[in-house]
Amino acid sequence: MTNNKKIPVVTSPLRDSIIAMPACIKEASGIIIYGKRIKSIVYSLDVSLIANTNADAILCVYPFTPNTQILNAVSLVAKAPILVGVGGGLTSGDRSARLASHAEENNAGGIVLNGPVDIETTKAVRTYVDIPLIYTVIDKSRPLAPYIEAGVDIFNVSGGKDTVELVKWVREQYPDVPIIASGGKTEENILDTIAAGANAITYTAYGMMEQYFHKKMEIYRSDSE
User: Fold this and answer.
1) SS (H, E, C) the chain
2) Topology of 34-197 in CATH?
3) Which of 57, 52, 44, 96 is nearest to 200 (CA)?
């Protein structure tokens, strides 16, 4: 019996324009959430990109007050689970909990809490939802144990240039807790983050649509000459 390991690809001329995540993210172990393995997570609120990416999940967080209409817009086009931010800084307490409940009812795959979130808000959100609770680690200033005790399931490490060291810091304390981490812009950064202990990588999509659009326009111009 022949075991053909080549993966068949089925597409069409109108649907083969996909914004692909860096291939090296496949080196990550992934996190299995309700039966689906998630390795690549695109960070974008561009609905046209979200509708045309091969990312395993969508990170729906932004620097404004959480708004259910934004989630509704993303939900309309996303083909992958959405990890939804519900505040934790200015937005907190019962408001964050209600937003989390709305997100769960609209098929969110997880709830993301900002770095400044207090323990009481974390507990309130946990009582409202049954989907994974994700706490964002931005530095080493806060002990992690109280967040685990409050019901956090996954750590989301977002430390800028210090992300790799921050992932190591988290992994040393919690060998078995899933870690999502921002991978940076280069393959080397992504692989270093995975080696440090990240199970899934968040890839920021800033500028990807513009780059793709420019390439498409070059093709159109060449065809018209």
Assistant:
1) CCCCCCCCCCCCCCCCCCECCCHHHHHCCCEEECCEEECEEEECCCHHHHCCECCCEEEECCCCCCCHHHHHHHHHHCCCCEEEECCCCCCCHHHHHHHHHHHHHCCCCEEEECCCCCHHHHHHHHHHCCCCEEEEECCCCCCCHHHHHCCCCEEEECCHHHHHHHHHHHHHHCCCCCEEEECCCCHHHHHHHHHHCCCEEEEECCCHHHHHHHHHHHHHHHHHC
2) TIM Barrel (3.20.20)
3) 57
Least confident of 46-60, 80-94, 203-217: 203-217
- Which of 115, 195, 102 has the alpha carbon at shortest distance from 156? 115
Q: Using CA atoms, how far apart are residues 69 and 66, in angstroms rounded to an integer? A: 9
Among residues of the chain, what percentage have pLDDT more than 90?
Answer: 72
Residue with tokens 């994974």: 132
**pTM score of the predicted model:** 0.88
For the chain, which residues make up each domain, given as ranges?
34-197
How does pLDDT run across 163-197, given as a tens digit for each residue? 999 999 999 999 999 999 999 889 999 999 999 99
For tokens 């993303």, the residue is 74
